Amino acid sequence: MCDDDIHPGLVHDPRLSRRTFGLAAAALGGLAATAAGAQSPVVEKDVEIKTPDGVADAALFYPQGKGKWPAVLVWPDVMSLRPVFRDMGRRLAAAGYVVLVPNLYYRAKKAPVIEGTFNFANPDDRAKLTPLRATVTPEGTDRDAVAYVAFLDAQPQTNKGRKVGVQGYCMGGPLAFRTAAVAPGRIAAVATFHGGGLVTDQPTSPHLLIPKTHAEYLIAVADNDDKQDPTVKDKLKAAFAAAGRPAKVEVYAGAAHGWTVKGGQVYDEPAAEKAWAELLALYKKALA
Fold this sequence. Notes:
By secondary structure, the chain is of the alpha/beta class.
């Protein structure tokens, strides 16, 4: 999980502006120019997915029109499925993917689980998340991940001849690792952005799952996360090397925990667009 003391203070949830679509190309010297220029209309649906633990609410996105596309599972951050993550799902689908964004806390409450502004500096606000976070366990995540990948594969828009990608934000980072481990035959790309708890001293530590996976990794680390524990990136690099898994582990200098999620106090648009461009490059390569 992500530590509360490293989260930004105020979080609100504005809609993604059209301006950001053009920033990705500048972020990596044109790396995302093709994807950013190939946007297409998107279908968005609220869906329910049966899991061994109940019925999960989620949002599904895919390009409009005839065709089949590779699938991507997006694990949101600690505040779960909400408008800003719907915007991410829509944007990713417009780049040519079938995208599923589930509600992390479906066992306790339907999304959005937090309405309006949320302040991590306020103990009362933080307390709202405590019982919700307790519903997300390693074992439950494994069951959910299998159900979500199967759901994506069952969609008529999904190109099942191509592999699946998974990305996670904040506490969604460990969930992305677990997904790759429980569905190694399907997951070919894993991306995490300011992921919390990727390396722990527990037997359930996500980094211990790397040898079970067959994916390529993109690990985008927040500057203040790295300063809090600079050994994490090195342990991850060592684990990837030992497992023979290709990986890019990068600390985003000056970018604080949560920098990729619009609406957060530390949102950093240029750094967020750089991360987005790296994500598209990973999927273009690994999900081909």
